[in-house]
Amino acid sequence: MSELDARLRDRIDDQVAEALDAYLADLAESRPRRPRRAWPVVVTVALGVVTTGLDPRVAWAAWLAIAVTNVTWLLVCRGRS
Predict the structure, then answer these.
(1) Do 47 and 69 touch, CB atoms closer than 8 A?
(2) What angle, rounded to 10 degrees, do the helices at 39-52 and 59-80 form?
(3) Using one digit for the tens of pLDDT, what is the confidence trace for 11-42?
(4) Helical ranges in 31-58 per DSSP H
């Protein structure tokens, strides 16, 4: 296989870069990004902190709340995709 001269390689690189930029711009316009929500992470961490200070006999309620929060978040995310 013969080597390409530097000018031809630069032209090819420029064309590929322009095509990629155009593709990414079209993709961004057709599917705008939704803001990510961090409430499940904040709630889970807060409940985990509270749970460490609880009596083990009542900690099950906090663990249940953590599980419900995470399952709800997963169901909401699954419904949006």
Answers:
(1) yes
(2) 170
(3) 888 898 888 888 888 877 776 666 667 777 78
(4) 39-52
